[in-house]
Structure formats: C-alpha cells, structure tokens
Design brief:
By secondary structure, the chain is an alpha+beta fold. It contains five helices and six strands.
C-alpha cells in the first residue's frame, strides 16, 4: 500500500519531467491513497453504524415481544375479571301482578292446574263469590277469577295499585282434603316468592304445615326467611295467601 511517501520514478526523469512535476505526481498519488483509506474507514464506520442499528432494533423487538405476553396476560385477566363480575349479577324474578300472571305461573309448576270457570267483580254483593272483605275500598271494581284446583274451589283477586301501593294478587282456596290443600299452599309459595331460595321455602312451608297439623291456624307472616314476604293463613280446610311486598 502507498503510504503517501513520494517515490523516485526514473521514467519521469527520462522523459524530461522536472523534479517539481515528479513531486506533484507523487503527492497526487499519496492524496489518492489517503482518500481511499478515508473512504474505506467511512465504509467500516457505516457498517459499524448499521450493525449497531440492527442490534438496537433486535433488542427493541425482543423487549416488545417480552412485554407482549405480559400484556396478553393482563388482557386475559381483565376478561376473566369481567366474567366474574357478570356472574355475581343474579337476575331476579317478578311476583305476579295480575290474575292471568298468577295462573300462568302456577300452572307451569304443577300437574294439577288452576282451571278458570268464571270472572266476577270483587265488590259485587250479588256475586256468588263475594266475600266480606271485598266491601273495603281496596277491592272496589277489581276483577276476580273463580275456578278449581283438583277438588278444591279457588278464587284469585288482583287488587291495590292505588295510594302508592303495589298491585297484589290474593288467592283463596277451600278444600276438604288437607293434604291436597298443603300441596296447593306449597305451589302458591313458590309462585309468590320466586326469589327465595329453595331451602328457605321448604323450611318455611314445613313449619307452617306442621303448625296446621297440630291444630293451629298459623299466620303466614314470617320474618325468619329471606325472600318470604307473605300475608294470610292456612287453616284445616282453607287457605288465603298473598305477597303484599311485591318482590
């Protein structure tokens, strides 16, 4: 490699070139060599820069890939959390607010359905289905349905809905068969307390029926069981039951 030191060329002397021209030529050759060295160095620097950029890009990609599983895990955790929140939300069933709603709900739970026989106005004193309490303002002009459940006579009356009060379905049943009456009572509880647990319903029903069998006429009001908000009575041959809370 020419390191930029001027060399003596006899051919240049033989052709008559002066020593100054020879020096200039030698200097030009040295400059060219220097330029080539600088260009080579620049290429090496450029290669080094490119290698550094590539290494930085690879490191950045590796860091991004490393964070991606964490991001995915967080997203998956968020989805599981959202599912958990939804599972905590338990839908509530509504208490029947009309005669037809009660009949439909009752008949869906039993093989011995309510069979409709007649419609009437509750406070009509000439109706064969009139009861003493129907004289009260709450029962004015409200509709009643008379029918049967197996061998029992049954009346369903929807009343209320005024003075800020919830509408309420009241059920009357008269039955000579106390076992059949107890079964009707159990189904009515399930219809009128749809949000009570099965365990609480069964415990409540058993308590009331046992009292009735012991000769008492137990009130249906009870604050001992969550979701059981009933009013009425269970006697030896008759039942009156309603949910006045409306939920």
């Amino acid at each position: 490699m020419n390191m930029g030191v001027a060399s003596y060329d006899s051919s240049q002397v033989a052709t008559g070139n002066s020593s100054a021209e020879v020096a200039v030529q030698a200097a030009g050759d040295a400059g060219s060599s220097s330029d080539a060295a600088e260009a080579d160095s620049a290429k090496q620097d450029d290669g080094s820069d490119n290698a550094g950029d590539a290494a930085s890009e690879e490191k950045g990609q590796a860091a991004e890939n490393a964070s991606s599983p964490s991001d995915a895990a967080e997203a998956d955790s968020g989805q599981r959390g959202s599912g958990s929140d939804n599972s905590d939300s338990v839908p509530t069933a509504s208490v029947p607010k009309t005669n037809d709603d009660f009949i439909d709900a009752y008949n869906s739970l039993t093989d011995t359905p309510f069979v409709k026989e007649a419609n009437y106005t509750a406070n009509d004193k000439d109706s064969p289905y009139y009861r003493t309490e129907f004289r009260l303002p709450a029962f004015k002009d409200v509709s009643g349905v008379h029918g049967s459940i197996g061998g029992a006579s049954a009346d369903i009356v929807c009343y209320g809905g005024s003075w800020g009060r919830e509408k309420c379905v009241r059920v009357y049943v008269d039955d000579k068969d106390s076992e059949e009456l107890a079964g009707i009572f159990r189904t009515c509880v399930e219809v009128l307390c749809p949000n009570a647990s099965e365990e609480d319903r069964e415990a409540y029903e058993s308590e009331v029926i046992e009292q009735q069998k012991d000769g008492y006429d137990p009130s249906l009001a009870s604050g001992n069981y969550e979701g059981i908000d009933l009013n009425g009575y269970l006697q030896h041959r008759s039942l009156m039951i309603e949910n006045t809370k409306g939920e």
